Amino acid sequence: MAKPHSSLSCLIISFLITLLQLIIPSQEAKITPPPLPILPLPNYAQLKWQQRELIMFLHFGVNTFTDSEWGTGHENPAIFNPIRLDANQWVDTAVQAGVSLVILTAKHHDGFCLWPSKYTDHSVTRSPWKNGQGDVVQEFVNAAKARGVDVGLYLSPWDRHDRTYGLNKEYNEHYLAQLQELLNKYGDVKEIWFDGAKGSNAPNMTYYFDDWFAMVKEYQSTINIFSDAGPGVRWVGNEKGFAGSTSWSTINRTLLSIGNSNADYLNSGDPKGTDWLPPECDVSIRTGWFWHKSQAPKGLSDLLEIYYKSVGRNCVLLLNVPPDTQGLISDSDVQRLKEFRSAIDTIFSTNLANKCSIKASSQRGGKNGDFGPENVLDNDHLWTYWTPSDEDNKDDYWIELRTKSRPLRFNVVRIQEAIGLGQRVKRHEIWVDGTKIENGTTIGYKKLHRLEKGTVNNAYSVMIKIIGSRGTPLISSVGLHFDPFWNPNGQVAT
């Protein structure tokens, strides 16, 4: 028989356990879930594309040998003879520039195919290069695969050579056949490039884009389709490489038409857009898209300007680097790309914000939650983030960096949103030691403020205020950087 005091002890212990459970909340009750997403959202392929930041275009074909930009379609294939063609050199150049995706013009407007298409004889099969047995696309794909670089292809809808162009049914069948060849024969393709370029005197032609896009997705499920109207990536609306200072990844695709879209709308996007369709900025390292002996690469200052107005405005930069008549990227272009990559690394390799203490107006879930301001200083720029409490004053969201010792010296402020849950920020400001120094609108994946007034010296605090947002903001990363090439009051480095 149990002793009376033993039963009493058990009762006391049980009472104390119950009391502790009431006083100390369970671990489960402490966990605050992430906020709801704000639609539309990017898909997996779009997120991966956005993180590339810089990709490369290779314009190469008969135009390279005729010193022209738009071929006539009547070129003799015998002119195509790049006797030193080396796709390994192309991809090595891309890798040195920090590029993870390269797009090749498999066919430009002249209709000349860089692969042995069985649907035309206007191709490498009738050129002296490798006695008509060569395949530029295959060599390009092999070189990229060996170096872990992804590939993209451009198949121009406008074909100035094929006799069926202008006959809707016949030409669309021809185009789809060539598209199937490229998507079926050469392995994974991560971006397919369509445009609406067409000469004013070209025959009337209706492209069956919906059929094309459906076929692309059937063959390549993780591909991004580029055009004025997506559906994966949209054109930015110009060939300067510049996005708008307001740059939404969201847009309404029903207002877009390939080859006939409003450039301003493409450039800025739409905060009320129903589709996630991020902008891609295409520009050439030279004046032209194809290689011309008379042209030289843009200066370093020009390329940095493009970088800040593309990557720094929520876009991916597609930089064209054309191979020459030998089939090589010219030494001057290779050298300029090395300088460009070195400059980017110099600017952004050091984040002065890492030396600062950080606080915020509030944080979701309180101090024990997973959404504190310290998240903006880690290396995850997508899935960890600071977000304020839902009860915070919606006109006064802020995050503040304060130096722990030496004053700060910087001229670039980087801000990034957790776009996996939607693009949110409409307006923001940057304050230094209580003085506003910059205004901004959208942020998106990455916003780079290169300070127009020059370098900030001897700063002790930097505050980023979010003063307009679609729902509570989600800030994934903040950086303070010094750009030694930027001097708005004098000559920028060349």
From TrEMBL:
Q: Which PANTHER family match?
A: ALPHA-L-FUCOSIDASE, ALPHA-L-FUCOSIDASE-RELATED
Cite the Glycoside hydrolase family 29 N-terminal domain residue spans from the record: 78-339
Organism expressing this protein natively: Anisodus acutangulus
**Main EC class the enzyme belongs to:** hydrolase
The keyword Cytoplasm appears for this protein: no
Q: Which GO terms describe its molecular function?
A: alpha-L-fucosidase activity
Extract the InterPro entries matched here: Galactose-bd-like_sf (IPR008979), GH (IPR017853), Glyco_hydro_29 (IPR000933), Glyco_hydro_29_N (IPR057739)
Put simply, this protein is called: alpha-L-fucosidase
Q: Which GO terms describe its cellular component?
A: lysosome
